[in-house]
């Protein structure tokens, strides 16, 4: 049976990959730290508590499991703080240590989560082949640096390696401070929701589509950087308006109350020709369906 080590398994994207991995016949070794919530043991699913920033714990884990495959989602992602936090540097080191331990224990195929923050956002539509990598944040710089290092390491070691560059996502288990989640929570609690003018155009994708894209990437032989997005930019205002309409509280939306940074791009979207043509993947959830499912999830969870 195929064996995969899944880091960040209790996180936003990682937890969503588990059903797809099990369906595709993997023995899943899921890493969490410091605790996992709302996740149960299943057949062929094994949970491991490990602080990946601790070299000794990490080395012991890889020696014990000896996985054939690796999916790495663990990172520092606290909203508003992660963009320029020096915690990003610690995760570059831990991620390099992880892939070395993986290969030394017989690992063959590794999938890492990258970010659209690696790109030069002046180019609006971002392509893996033609858009320059020119990050404007510590987070983007660290992701870009890790990608370049892993690309060289994979070439020398023979590791099969792919890097999924995620754009904007939303869905169940998202941090409550993010745009979609915070808007839903405010409206469900009948509280005003203050936001920017929301004229920015962004490429949003439902988290289950993101998870399936990553598992499809693992199952393939594609290597290098692969954009993971919808390819269809939408105005943030359209998203907020849709949420307000579905929840019947448009009067609670306060556009223009939050200042927008002067260097924030008007448009940022993924060129998804590579993942659609070379992998044959396409999203299964339209924006309205994804937003409705997210509303339902938050409605249920706020009652608990």
Q: What order do the strands of the largest sheet run in, or round the barrel if closed?
A: 3-2-1-4-5-7-12
CATH uppermost class of the largest domain: Alpha Beta
The number of helical elements comes to 9
Q: What is the molecular shape?
A: globular
Helix content: 25-40%
Q: Please report which band the strand proportion falls in: under 5%, 5-15%, 15-25%, 25-35%, 35-45% or over 45%.
A: 15-25%
DSSP strand tally: 15
What's the CATH superfamily of the largest domain, by name?
A: NAD(P)-binding Rossmann-like Domain
N→C terminal distance = 38 Å
Q: Return residue spans where pLDDT drops below 50 for at least 5 consecutive residues.
A: none
Rg over CA atoms, rounded to whole Å, is 19 Å
Please provide a written account of the structure.
The structure is a single chain. The chain is of the alpha/beta class and 304 residues long. It folds into two domains: 2-168 and 206-228, Rossmann fold; 170-203 and 232-267 and 285-302, UDP-galactose 4-epimerase, domain 1. It contains nine helices and 15 strands. Helix 3 (87-104) links the parallel strand 4 and strand 5. Helix 7 (236-247) packs across helix 9 (287-302). The protein is globular, with a radius of gyration of 19 Å. The model has no long low-confidence stretch (mean pLDDT 96).
